[in-house]
Design a protein that fits this description.
three-stranded parallel β-sheet, binds guanine, about 15% strand, Rossmann fold, about 40% helix
Length: about 280
């Protein structure tokens, strides 16, 4: 069994991003990322903090617009409009989820697609589906890079994606399909999850359910990508896979933490550089 080391690969990518930023700075270009954080969900606040810190380390200018959960939609749209027009900003990211009274689709569609470094605007979603150059959502993008790093080619493989969110499951399935895998997408209404996971060569799971994937649900030599992040009673972080009992059956598996999580941040930085270069015609 080989551990897919996202921490090591993310460091490599972040070092490369840092070099790219230095080169851009020689041409008087400093990439900029604007993050909008609404409310005080502890997990969202923690992610935003990590994103800002990573920007700083890479030499990317970043600004966080923190807003109370009581804010109205118009005020968020005003900030997005300002960021769309701000020439120093290359990437705009609205941390999700948003409070219930805010229409997430309206917010995401207000972001200039050329600054949509999360790849959540329907314009970029469509381009990914069509296999065109686009901003690719950071988490599934990170998974694809991790597979590439370990020479795992999804072509012709049976892949089971568990979870069908717009942020992870759907773009994950799309990228794998574009890479010529045969993809099953399972979700909360799937009749028999085990029937799908048991025949999979690769399982990508990210639904936030501790120990969802158990030993008897996977075949020998399976490759497992655990995108889940769950905090358990003792305060530690675990994924959606019963790692202790499943890992010995795997040919490759991502740990939690240290697998997909660090890749997400690295790919966001990469998307921000891509945007800065695109926008400056480099
Ligand atoms: N919430 C959970 N994951 C993400 C992400 O990748 N981007 C944003 N904007 N919000 C998230």
């Amino acid at each position: 069994m080989t551990i897919l080391d996202g921490k090591a690969l993310s460091k490599k990518i972040r070092d490369k991003v840092k070099n790219d930023v230095e080169t851009l700075q020689h041409n008087n270009i400093t990439p900029g990322l604007a993050v909008i954080l609404v409310g005080n969900d502890p997990a969202s606040s923690a992610y935003v903090k990590m994103k800002s810190k990573a920007c700083k380390e890479a030499g990317i200018y970043s600004i966080v617009h923190e807003m109370p959960s009581s804010i109205n939609q118009e005020n968020i749209l005003e900030i997005i409009d300002l960021m769309n027009k701000n020439q120093n900003i290359d990437g705009i990211l609205v941390q999700l989820p948003l409070p219930e009274h805010i229409d997430t689709t309206v917010i995401l569609e207000a972001i200039d697609p050329t600054k949509d470094v999360d790849g959540f605007h329907p314009y970029n979603v469509g381009r990914v589906v069509a296999g065109l150059d686009s901003f690719i959502p950071a988490t599934p993008y990170g998974v694809m890079e991790l597979l590439k790093e370990y020479d795992i080619d999804p072509k012709g493989k049976d892949v089971c994606v568990v979870g069908a969110s717009n942020i992870v499951g759907k773009p994950m399935a799309t990228l794998l399909l574009n890479a010529n895998a045969t993809v099953d997408i399972c979700h909360i209404y799937t009749k028999d999850l085990k029937e799908h996971t048991l025949k999979a060569d690769i399982i990508c799971v990210g639904v936030g359910v501790v120990n969802l994937i158990k030993e008897d649900m996977v075949k020998d030599d399976v490759i497992i990508i655990d995108i889940g992040i769950n905090r358990i009673e003792d305060g530690s972080l675990v994924g959606d896979v019963d790692f202790k009992n499943v890992s010995s059956k795997c040919s490759y598996i991502t740990p939690v933490p240290g697998g997909v999580g660090p890749m997400t941040i690295a790919m966001l930085l990469k998307n921000t550089i891509k945007s800065a270069k695109n926008r400056k015609g480099i």
